[in-house]
Design goal:
By secondary structure, the protein is α/β, with parallel strands linked by helices. The protein has helices spanning 8-15, 19-26, 34-47, 53-60, 76-91, 104-114, 162-175, 191-206, 223-235, 248-260, 294-310; strands spanning 65-70, 95-100, 122-126, 143-146, 156-160, 181-185, 216-218, 242-245, 270-275, 288-291, 318-321, 324-326. It folds into three domains: 8-51, Orthogonal Bundle (434 Repressor (Amino-terminal Domain)); 63-161 and 294-322, 3-Layer(aba) Sandwich (Rossmann fold); 162-292, 3-Layer(aba) Sandwich (Rossmann fold). The protein is built from eleven helices and twelve strands. The strands form two sheets. It has a six-stranded parallel β-sheet, with helices on both faces. A six-stranded mixed β-sheet has the order 7-6-8-9-10-12, sandwiched between helices.
Length: 341
C-alpha cells in the first residue's frame, strides 16, 4: 500500500499548533516561541516531513531554476564548467537548465524565451563577447558571465587568470633556456585567447626578447589548427625550440606535426598547453600544461548567481581564479648543439 505524503497540517496536528505556525518555523521566522519551535521541529523529524519546494518557490515568486547558455555543449571545458555549476545549484535547491547558442541570433531567442517568460531566476552566460550576443544580456536581471570580465557594470563575473596562464607557460619555457617560442593562440575574438597571448608577450618582454609576430598563429582550439601552423613554420625553415599552445588539444596537434617532421618532443622542441585534460598525463609524451579547474569555475559562477538571485542589492561577485603549472615530460631544457664543420 502506497504511503500518503505527510503534509504541513499533519505536522501541525502532531505539534498541537496551527499550520501557519508550522510554516513560520519552516521558513525561519523569528516570531515563534522557542518551546513552540522545538515541538514543531520534533514533529517534522518524527513524521519525516519535507517542505514542498515547488509551493515554496511559488510563494517566494521564484522558479528555483537557473540557466546556463554556452556556445556549445560538447566542448570538454564548457561541459565541465556546467557540471560544476549544476552540482552547486543542486546543493542549494536550484535546478540548472543548459542550452547551447552557437551564434547571437540563437542566444537572443533563448534569452527572450527563458527570461521574457520568467521561466528562470537567473542566467549564466559563457564567452559573452565571442560575437554580439552581449547586447542581448538582460538588464535588471540576475546574470553572471563566465570566461571574461564583464564590460558593463551591474554584472557578476567569473574568469580564469588567463594572463597569468600565458605568462606562466612562457616563463616555464624561458626558465628552461628557450628563447624562440612559437605560439598558437585560440580564436582572438575570445577574451581568454587575448589574455593568454598578452601573458606570453609580457614574459618574453620581461626577458628583453623581441616578439616575432610571424611565429604567432591564430588557431581555433582544434588540434588541426596547431598541426597546420607548426607544419607550415617547419616547411618555411623557421627556427624555434618550443611551442606554447593555448589549449591541450592544439598542443597535441603541434606534437604530431613535429614528429612527422622527424623532430623529437621534448629533446628537439618542447611543447606546453593549457587545460590539463584528464588524458594529458597519458599523452606521449605526458603533456606539460597549465591547469584550470573547470569544475571550480562552474561552482563559483553558480554561487555568484544564486547570491545575485537571493540578495539583489548585494555587490555583484567578481572572481578571478588562479592557474597552476603542471610539469610533465613534454618540456625540457633547451639543448644547444654545435654545428659540425
Amino acid at each position: 500500500m502506497r504511503r500518503s505524503r505527510v503534509t504541513i497540517r499533519d505536522v501541525a496536528k502532531r505539534a498541537g499548533v496551527s499550520h501557519q505556525t508550522v510554516s513560520r518555523v519552516i521558513n525561519g521566522s523569528p516570531d515563534v516561541l522557542p518551546e513552540t519551535r522545538q515541538r514543531v521541529e520534533e514533529a517534522v523529524a518524527e513524521l519525516g516531513y519535507h517542505p514542498n519546494e515547488v509551493a515554496r518557490s511559488l510563494a517566494e515568486g521564484r522558479t528555483r531554476t537557473l540557466a546556463c547558455i554556452s556556445p556549445n555543449l560538447i566542448d570538454y571545458t564548457f561541459s565541465s564548467i556546467i557540471e560544476g555549476a549544476e552540482n552547486e545549484a543542486r546543493s542549494k535547491g536550484y535546478f540548472l537548465l543548459s542550452a547551447s547558442a552557437p551564434d547571437e541570433t540563437v542566444f537572443a531567442e533563448l534569452i527572450r524565451s527563458l527570461v521574457g517568460s520568467r521561466r528562470i531566476d537567473g542566467v549564466l552566460v559563457m564567452n559573452p563577447y565571442i560575437d554580439n550576443r552581449s547586447v542581448f544580456i538582460p538588464e535588471n536581471f540576475p546574470v553572471v558571465v563566465l570566461g571574461a570580465v564583464a564590460r558593463t557594470t551591474g554584472l557578476g563575473w567569473v574568469a580564469l587568470d588567463d594572463t597569468g596562464a600565458g605568462w606562466m607557460a612562457a616563463n616555464h619555457l624561458l626558465r628552461l633556456g628557450h628563447c624562440q617560442i612559437a605560439c598558437v593562440t585560440g580564436p582572438l575574438n575570445e577574451d581568454c585567447s587575448q589574455e593568454r597571448l598578452k601573458g606570453y608577450q609580457l614574459a618574453l618582454q620581461a626577458e628583453g626578447l623581441t616578439i616575432d609576430p610571424t611565429l604567432i598563429g591564430e588557431g581555433d582550439w582544434q588540434a588541426s589548427s596547431a598541426y597546420h601552423y607548426v607544419s607550415e613554420w617547419l616547411a618555411q625553415g623557421r627556427h624555434f625550440s618550443a611551442v606554447f599552445a593555448h589549449n591541450d588539444r592544439m598542443a597535441i596537434g603541434a606534437i604530431r606535426a613535429l614528429r612527422e617532421a622527424g623532430l623529437r618532443v621534448p629533446e628537439d622542441v618542447s611543447v606546453i598547453g593549457v587545460d590539463d585534460l584528464p588524458l594529458a598525463s597519458y599523452f606521449d609524451p605526458p603533456l606539460t600544461t597549465i591547469r584550470q579547474d573547470m569544475f571550480a569555475i562552474g561552482r563559483a559562477a553558480a554561487q555568484a548567481l544564486i547570491e545575485a538571485v537571493e540578495n539583489p542589492l548585494a555587490a555583484k561577485r567578481q572572481v578571478r581564479l588562479p592557474v597552476e603549472l603542471i610539469v610533465r615530460a613534454s618540456t625540457a631544457p633547451r639543448v644547444v648543439r654545435e654545428e659540425v664543420v
